[in-house]
Known about the structure:
4 copies of one chain form a homotetramer.
Chain A: E1 5-6, H1 17-25, H2 42-50, E2 55-59, H3 62-70, E3 78-83, H4 87-90, H5 95-99, E4 104-108, H6 117-124, E5 135-142, H7 153-166, E6 169-174, H8 177-184, H9 188-193, E7 198-201, E8 212-216, H10 222-231, H11 240-250, H12 254-270, E9 285-289, H13 292-300, E10 303-304, E11 306-307, E12 312-316, H14 323-334
Parallel strand pairs in A: 1-10, 3-4, 3-5, 5-6, 6-7
Antiparallel strand pairs in A: 2-8, 7-8, 9-12, 11-12
Helix pairs in contact in A: 1-11, 8-12, 12-14
Amino acid sequence: xxxxxxxxxxxxxxxxxxxxxxxxxxxxxxxxxxxxxxxxxxxxxxxxxxxxxxxxxxxxxxxxxxxxxxxxxxxxxxxxxxxxxxxxxxxxxxxxxxxxxxxxxxxxxxxxxxxxxxxxxxxxxxxxxxxxxxxxxxxxxxxxxxxxxxxxxxxxxxxxxxxxxxxxxxxxxxxxxxxxxxxxxxxxxxxxxxxxxxxxxxxxxxxxxxxxxxxxxxxxxxxxxxxxxxxxxxxxxxxxxxxxxxxxxxxxxxxxxxxxxxxxxxxxxxxxxxxxxxxxxxxxxxxxxxxxxxxxxxxxxxxxxxxxxxxxxxxxxxxxxxxxxxxxxxxxxxxx
Amino acid sequence: xxxxxxxxxxxxxxxxxxxxxxxxxxxxxxxxxxxxxxxxxxxxxxxxxxxxxxxxxxxxxxxxxxxxxxxxxxxxxxxxxxxxxxxxxxxxxxxxxxxxxxxxxxxxxxxxxxxxxxxxxxxxxxxxxxxxxxxxxxxxxxxxxxxxxxxxxxxxxxxxxxxxxxxxxxxxxxxxxxxxxxxxxxxxxxxxxxxxxxxxxxxxxxxxxxxxxxxxxxxxxxxxxxxxxxxxxxxxxxxxxxxxxxxxxxxxxxxxxxxxxxxxxxxxxxxxxxxxxxxxxxxxxxxxxxxxxxxxxxxxxxxxxxxxxxxxxxxxxxxxxxxxxxxxxxxxxxxx
Amino acid sequence: xxxxxxxxxxxxxxxxxxxxxxxxxxxxxxxxxxxxxxxxxxxxxxxxxxxxxxxxxxxxxxxxxxxxxxxxxxxxxxxxxxxxxxxxxxxxxxxxxxxxxxxxxxxxxxxxxxxxxxxxxxxxxxxxxxxxxxxxxxxxxxxxxxxxxxxxxxxxxxxxxxxxxxxxxxxxxxxxxxxxxxxxxxxxxxxxxxxxxxxxxxxxxxxxxxxxxxxxxxxxxxxxxxxxxxxxxxxxxxxxxxxxxxxxxxxxxxxxxxxxxxxxxxxxxxxxxxxxxxxxxxxxxxxxxxxxxxxxxxxxxxxxxxxxxxxxxxxxxxxxxxxxxxxxxxxxxxxx
Amino acid sequence: xxxxxxxxxxxxxxxxxxxxxxxxxxxxxxxxxxxxxxxxxxxxxxxxxxxxxxxxxxxxxxxxxxxxxxxxxxxxxxxxxxxxxxxxxxxxxxxxxxxxxxxxxxxxxxxxxxxxxxxxxxxxxxxxxxxxxxxxxxxxxxxxxxxxxxxxxxxxxxxxxxxxxxxxxxxxxxxxxxxxxxxxxxxxxxxxxxxxxxxxxxxxxxxxxxxxxxxxxxxxxxxxxxxxxxxxxxxxxxxxxxxxxxxxxxxxxxxxxxxxxxxxxxxxxxxxxxxxxxxxxxxxxxxxxxxxxxxxxxxxxxxxxxxxxxxxxxxxxxxxxxxxxxxxxxxxxxxx
Lengths: 336, 336, 336, 336
């Protein structure tokens, strides 16, 4: 890829220098698997970050993180309510069906990729309470959503109340959790996670290499996740290199700093989009109405991005997006 | 861990400098997942190494590598013949049951952790050919074995002939494949793999960080493994860092060089063990009869290792074992 | 249940006298499982019925029959295209997810519960051919459909051509296959099954007690189904009583005779429904627009049936529906 | 099969006349599935029989009954301790692996097919308490055992105490539970079941046609089993015919009467066997040392039975075994 102004995705960005540094610092031999001194710090560090007790485990992908967390809430004969465009439904190659042993994803609509109690009720209330129909066991939401929207603390509280009332677990796919937290501002981590039961906290798109965290706000569930992580072939023997990445990202709030940078770049672009924007920009993704000709024109100027259907484009910023590229893109779109 | 003379395992050793170097060289953004230029080289590089056509995919653990390969051969209602002390049976937390959707491991004895056609026939011939009994679909062997023994090319040929005759797949768990290859000598890779159908080629214990290779000698199976790898949450978005590790290990036969070093260190130790050795040393592991008192005496001298039952110890050398430590250990045992 | 004029469902009707008779005739001891002389006749009898080579196995429920047949076509990482109101999606408690080890049901719309090549293409053409998205492996249709509609031979031929072109299996859920066959008329079995790859041929709703047939038009698949049937706990040791039921239903075309009776009763009702009918009546189910008050009025007259949403009712006739009840119901609706 | 003196197995015996009678009595339409009046009686009838609160559900095979009960105790990543010759290990085609989503059977020796706390401790105590090794979640025993041995109430109490201490569930495979109960005598049902958590109560080998009972002594588990039964395709729509079979067997203790008859016939045979007996006869199975020539001699006299290895035979009596046949067999063996 030789594009000089890349907005394809944040998922292939380079690794942040401080992450590299921490990985190198972990290079001397230590106990294998998660018995090393770095992995042992995770519970405490995340508990401090969220100001509530939690257990945290590294894992190499968001797909595994989501599925392992869901396995604490969903029996094989149950279902998971998620948005019809949720990553777990659309882009994880059936991983939930595998990890949950055939449980079902129950698809719900919702503006901007976000679920609401009313929307979920509309889906699950008609389900007959009998053995012929799959019953929901959990709700999975994405923060920021697949359309770059962030759930507010109030929205999260309402979802949690609904989940409790219905006896459902509440999981958050946080592949871009940092971007949502950065958008929501003060007391960022706690605000963005709200009262969810579990969180797949993403670091890879935000400057990491190969480590996400499964955060369990009921630490008693950690045991199950540890057995299932091993069983899924996700217990790496040199786990200290994954722990090191995560700790480096937490250190000095690098995770927030990186996300703020990406979000700011997204706003720079947004400022040129006017009512071309299909969704408010609340993280680091933009969905912009652009004709084929307009997209061609941008590409000629060196901007790289994906088409989004016939008449739109998706732009994603990252921790390493150059300010000048984002500003240039915003201007280029404004000039179309 | 502060032991100055570590022989606990090779699974937590540092990462080789050339592997670090290759990972850094991969740091500029490239296509995500396995669409990058490094991942794209794997098929060709492994085909050259084995002098036969194969497909090769990276994955983060040997457990996942074994299970994904076995999934090309074993239906959920079938079984896998393996040694009763095989890693997939004893140390993978039930991963084969998960990845193979409930297929069974069928346990076979065998000297030194090695299977033979006769041994396998003794296990499977009594199985009635009816639906009440699980039928074997594949054989899994470990090279080098869990007791540090290496299968010779003749032994591998005999197993393959047996497998073909019975219509079974033949998979090789090569967590320490390099050590077996280094032991077997000339034309190492091809000799050590023999005519197996698939190989989990280990790099992590031998100087890598987080990348093993699934090698499929029927490249037509690659598609299935790719879908299953994604479904298992093992398709990392920055896969180029895994490909880089593997390519660095293959470059200039670093994999063999590292294994030769570890094997030589094992021989240094072995030379002091006499008939204390429980198994011939054909790779980088030693199983040595030592009383509790003798083990204590060694530990007092700074040697770190695991007990092996009541009356023995296991020593493992690695790519970074210091010659002087190995020689010292050999002498220390001889002096007991 | 003491209703004198029952139209709730055909799934709880009594067992036909000839079925009872055949079961009693099977009472002397014979080989267990499917080794008895009756079970051994099934392949031949169904091959004759369909005028093409097939294997046939008994199983106790349509749910198991559907899932076992689908398991011959669908890998755990694949999907099954079915109607969004298909029984396998809505009423089988997640059995496909269980039997297919997490494979996905891919939901398609279609008038009257029927799928069309165009409809399916609209669903699957947008699926990216990459490992992030689940790929379809098979299509499942229901004959007669969940709305009592029958696929014509031409429609079936078009679906098969489409399936072949896309490399998909084609399975037919025939819980009410007999009613479709009776509706389609001459050469009924072959016409109603068309060129599908497998059929769950229902007998229970049509006068049987506890036996459906899995019919595999590629007999080479029988082995897999036999292993999976046992593995699912569906290989009954006194299987001869199930074979006896099926053979009794085939004998003298009792299955068609019973279905014709039920269909005729459905037409008797339909004749009083006029444009209240939501779907053409092509089998033994009627979906009729009726207000709550109208439904109450019918129930006061002794008719038993289920509501269908707010403004409609579902009536099902069976092999034992009394003509006078059906005629009376038709008149009662006409008089509303 | 035309043998006049059949001792092959009890699994293909005819259906008892009282069972037929009860099935016919159930022929009028009732609610489908398990909503009928007969199915609704089961909980109460079994609670009375065992003098403790339980839930009971019908299912068509012992394989399904065992697996559904085990699913209340065993997570997919766990294991079930059972005898190495247990039916669930040797003769259920991998059903536990399917129903338990890949959980492992952990094989334990034990005289006469019976497990003991010491034997189990010897198996599970060496298991490391870490995620690399599968942990046991339950114990499964067979009453009467695969060698026709019955657990005494004391033995059961010891197993339950052990299970509780280790936090394991305790399941009983009761394919021939009636024969054990008849052997144990007074207060038969409660004595034979002891304090187990669940029981697969067999009726089919003892005069039934197609109904076993899953008995759950923690009735709160019934819900899970109901969902899983449906999901496994085992919820028959005309379930009343299964409930009728079971109720007929319980009525007037027909189940015990039938078993007593079979047991008595077994004793008639045993009385001629002397020290040819490989196991004490505590139910309705005999394992008798007989050379090939001796077996031939018996077969010439019209006795039908299975070889048991090279130098023995297995004889099974049933509810319909003719006294004169059993006596004749005992004499014939004595005369060899």
